[in-house]
Write a structure and sequence with these properties.
heterotrimer; A mainly beta (447); B mainly alpha (259); C mainly beta (243); A: 447 residues; mainly beta; Porin; 16-stranded antiparallel barrel; 5 helices; 9% helix; 52% strand; B: 259 residues; mainly alpha; Cytochrome Bc1 Complex, Chain D, domain 2; 2 domains; two-stranded antiparallel sheet; 2 strands; 37% helix
Chain lengths: 447, 259, 243
């Protein structure tokens, strides 16, 4: 069995486990408490930000009314918020490799649908963010998954409004790449539909360790106009996909630019363009055969580029996103750059195109309906022997959130969601098309 | 009898007044109160309350208290004391926010959204339908500041008794400062000109001129329109502009106009 | 004209005339000369607190105007218990009658850094003239609940006129520059009111016959109500007692 099949089997399970158990960042009741503003002031429907909330975030979590610094808070105020999600869910995979006779591997394997359901909790996310002084902000996010393992997801210090200008802000630490369609503020959470595939997709057999939606480690220069209609960011990141303590001597570059404009009667529209240009090692120094972390060699490059838009039409809003992904041939085939002979005949760098269209209907600040369609389509496989549409996927997600309380102290949402994904050729044994689906309902609680 | 036809006339006039009172007009923008109502429910209701009376859930925790729209007395206006603000006055306040209070700048809302909010806010007080619109005060051209102008302004600061609230150096610590209450009876502090803060109703010289002419309704700050001539008000503005001791140093504050 | 139209016209004439007559002494009536006077006294039963001293040192002009100091005026009584500064007025019983507003203004004066009078009663729609007789700038700031609020600075001699459109008993008035300055303006929509002076006596002149509700308002002690009947030719007396 060649290595690509192993990727097929393990890759998607790993991805689903990672995103099934931890929750992304969220609406911050601590900010609501600090400023006596309701969740609906900053959030279309938390955690999705509206323009007022996006501006607050871009100002370094400051309202710029002269009362942002901690000295104006009650001494007992603490800028910490908590989130957990208690749910019942059902997961379905259409083709899973199982032993023909359970418990008897010698009897051989077959593909069989597997369906699991039950109650679940998402673990606990703890977020602290705010200001330490005027124009100096911070953010910490820790996620504790349901087995009790804590991950430091986000930690940064940001120096805001340098030289008195909103065009100069510097953030250092580990943070989400600056984008207006933030995966951390998505409104869907199921294993199948609760993340942006385009923010993580890497073709099967590709060794590039990168996700646009993964928090990266580095430094960012960001700026915006006073009403936040024009925004830019440029970031220099470690080439480790956010993993700390493993310096690699190489850096990735990310840049993003958006422009907003008003259409009378309809609302604010935005278009943006982004690009991530990075490199990854294909082999490293070893000691007694074991790779020495951080000593990557044979770096080869990859990129993720595209455009996106946020469209507001009265109570409807749409997010549109396009991505073009391109990895080097050595990365695409998981071959060390000093072993070119290991490349399969006709090997090329894989490229793919993907995108999503997400629609929301905000009936009022306490009820929002979500629908999303996402697709990834390989344009060129790394190994020409692979079928051209192998790994292609289409995902449909629908859901709604109802917020029975809306105040400036805490938040509660009732959440229901269904997502179904078709992937081409990824069944572990037969190479048939797979279908996965999730049904999720539960309470999303924040304090 | 005359009553019938005058009744009909009154009815028609009221209808047309009511219809236009549902809208707001800011430059070429037209706001609609029905659209503003949904926006108010999202953005404003937590402080200003469902009835626009400033008794939202957050009000007990705020100082100063949120504006009571039912009284229609507003701080930042271009109209003489005791009068309603113009639609543009309300729009500017929403856009600029009010520094050093819980009222943020709502500039991130689109211009249309802010115009719609103005139209809805006007529905909280019948004064907007009953009282005829009043013209904004005229602000004459400013003569350039000079040492003499500042000196005259200092003299006016003394003779107009500004110091009794704002203090001899403008620190907001005058002899009557601690006794001041706003029109709802809550304690209120006079502005400290020296600490680099931002004026609540705009920062330019013209804004200060206007504030001195209109007074800030609902607060102890009166109108000086009948007390000083325009040249004198400019002198006082020039003097006030010299009081700020906080130049911002390396991090200067950018001045900006309301969009 | 046929018989039916004739009778209809007569009926309309009588009907219209009758309606007009019924309202005759209501619409556009002035205090009818020959109406009755209601006289009375407002008394304070009990011991009034001693007035507190006012410290005017914050403004040198004011301090000079009162070399022996000044005292608060919130409860002013004399030896016989007569209560000053009480507004007595007809709050009900005149129906929908309107009365012409006098042309001459009511006057509130700022003298010696105090308001004179301490309680002023005037008509809704009547001009209020505010006079500053002091060589210091005052700030006149009424804080009404049922009228427009305005707030104006006034140097010595500067003229100032305003109008209160609606009845309100009473509007409190302050000067933000001199915090001890306080007065009240009672705005009444009919001409039957008076403010008690020394001795606590009052007289409401030329009241037409009818049943009326009288109210007596005091800034600290509250409001008392009495119902009276004015018969033609009679001049009732009323006593209000405050504790």
């Amino acid at each position: 069995m060649d290595s690509s099949r192993g990727w097929r089997r393990c890759g998607w399970i790993a991805v689903m486990v990672l995103f099934g158990s931890a929750l992304p960042a969220f609406g911050i009741p601590a900010f609501a408490r600090k400023y006596n503003l309701r969740c609906s002031d900053c959030h279309e429907a938390w955690p999705k930000l509206n323009n007022f909330g996006q501006t607050f975030k871009d100002n370094g979590y400051q309202l710029m009314t002269g009362r942002d610094t901690p000295i104006f808070q009650q001494g007992a105020y603490f800028p910490v918020a908590f989130r957990t999600f208690a749910s019942w869910h059902r997961e379905y995979n259409s083709l899973v490799a199982v032993d023909t006779i359970p418990g008897n591997p010698a009897a051989g394997q077959m593909e069989s649908p597997v369906s699991k359901s039950g109650f679940n909790i998402s673990g606990l996310t703890i977020w602290a963010a705010g200001t330490v002084a005027k124009n100096i902000s911070f953010g910490f996010q820790t996620e504790i998954d349901n087995s009790g393992t804590a991950t430091l997801a986000t930690y940064f210090a940001r120096f805001d409004n340098l030289l008195g200008s909103p065009w100069l802000n510097v953030k250092v630490g580990k943070f989400e790449l600056d984008t207006l369609i933030s995966e951390e503020r998505e409104l869907v959470y199921s294993n199948t539909g609760g993340f942006y595939r385009n923010y993580h997709f890497v073709p099967a057999g590709d060794s590039t360790n990168f996700g646009l939606g993964d928090n990266q480690l580095g430094a960012e220069l960001m700026g915006h106009s006073r009403n936040d209609y024009t925004r830019y960011s440029i970031a220099v990141l470690n080439s480790t996909n956010g993993v700390a303590d493993t310096p690699t001597n190489t850096y990735d570059l990310y840049a993003d630019f958006t422009q907003g404009f008003e259409i009378p009667k309809l609302g604010l529209q935005r278009v943006g363009v982004y690009g991530y240009f990075g490199e990854r090692p294909t082999f490293s120094q070893t000691s007694n055969g074991a790779p020495i972390p951080g000593t990557g060699l044979g770096n080869r490059s990859f990129s993720r580029t595209g455009i996106y838009g946020l469209w507001y039409l009265g109570k409807f809003d749409f997010s549109t996103f396009y991505l073009h992904g391109q990895d080097n041939v050595f990365l695409g085939n998981s071959v060390a750059a000093n072993q070119p002979g290991d490349l399969p005949p006709g090997a090329v760098g894989p490229t793919w195109n993907g995108g999503f269209f997400e629609a929301h209907y905000t009936y009022n600040p306490q009820l929002i309906v979500i629908g999303k369609y996402e697709t990834v389509q390989m344009s060129r496989q790394a190994n020409p022997a692979t079928p051209n549409d192998f790994g292609d996927m289409k995902v449909w997600t629908v859901g709604y959130r109802w917020y029975p309380i809306m105040n400036n102290r805490a938040g509660l949402a009732w959440h229901q969601e269904y997502a179904i994904a078709h992937t081409t050729g990824t069944a572990p044994l037969s190479g048939k098309n797979e279908t996965n689906s999730s049904y999720l309902m539960g309470f999303d609680l924040e304090f | 009898m005359m009553k019938g036809s005058s009744l009909t006339l009154a009815f028609l006039v009221t209808c047309s007044v009511l219809a236009s009172a549902q809208d707001s007009k800011i430059g070429e923008l037209r706001g609609n109160a029905n659209s503003g109502k949904a926006l108010y429910r999202r953005y404003c209701i937590g402080c200003h309350g469902a009835h626009g009376d400033g008794a939202g859930e957050s009000a007990p925790h705020l100082d100063p208290k949120p504006r009571d729209f039912t009284k229609a007395a507003f701080k930042c206006r271009s109209t003489p004391s005791g009068n309603l603000p113009t639609d543009t006055d309300l729009y500017d306040t929403i856009s600029r926010g009010i520094y050093n209070t819980g009222m943020p700048s709502w500039r991130p809302l689109t211009r249309q959204q802010r115009a719609d909010l103005v139209a809805y806010i006007k529905t909280f007080s019948s004064r907007f339908q009953e009282e005829p619109p009043v013209a904004s005060v005229t602000i004459p051209a400013e003569q350039p500041t000079s040492a003499e102008s500042v000196k005259r302004g200092a003299g006016l600061f003394q003779s107009m008794n500004c110091w009794s609230c704002h203090g001899k150096e403008g620190r907001g610590n005058g002899p009557s400062a601690q006794t001041l209450t706003d029109s709802k009876g809550y304690p209120i502090r006079p502005f400290d000109f020296t600490d680099g803060s931002h004026f609540k109703c705009g920062e330019t010289g013209r804004d200060l001129f206007r504030d001195l002419t209109t007074g800030l309704d609902g607060t102890p700050m009166p109108s000086f329109a009948d007390s000083m001539k325009p040249d004198q008000i400019w002198d006082l503005v020039h003097y006030i502009q010299t009081l700020n001791e906080d130049t911002g140093g390396f991090f200067h504050r950018a001045k900006h106009k309301v969009q | 004209m046929n018989k039916h139209s004739y009778y209809l016209a007569i009926f309309c004439l009588i009907f219209v005339c009758g309606m007009t007559l019924l309202d005759a002494d209501r619409i556009g009536a002035t205090p009818a000369p020959g109406g009755s006077s209601v006289t009375g006294v407002v008394k304070f039963k009990g011991t009034a607190e001693k007035p507190t001293r006012i410290d005017m040192s914050a403004d040198p002009f004011c301090a000079k105007a009162h070399p022996n100091g000044a005292t608060t005026e919130d409860v002013v009584t004399d030896a016989s218990g007569g209560l000053e500064n009480v507004v007595v007025y007809v709050s009900d019983g005149l129906g929908a009658a309107t009365f012409p507003v006098p042309d001459q203004p009511a006057v509130m004066e700022q003298k010696g850094c105090q308001y004179k009078p301490h309680v002023l009663a005037m008509r809704a729609g009547q001009k209020l003239s505010v006079v500053n007789s002091d060589a210091t700038t005052h700030n006149i700031h009424p804080t009404p609940n049922n009228n427009r609020e305005w707030n104006v600075s006034q140097p010595q001699g500067a003229p100032l006129e305003q109008v209160f459109a609606r009845e309100e008993v009473a509007i409190s008035v302050k000067c933000n520059i001199h915090p001890w300055m306080k007065s009240y303006i009672a705005v009444v929509k009919n001409p039957y009111f008076a403010v008690t002076e020394k001795g606590g006596t009052f007289e409401l002149k030329d009241l037409p016959p009818g049943n009326y509700t009288l109210q007596a308002w005091h800034e600290k002690l509250g409001t008392k109500t009495k119902m009276i009947t004015v018969a033609a030719g009679a001049s009732p007396t009323v006593e209000f007692d405050f504790q």
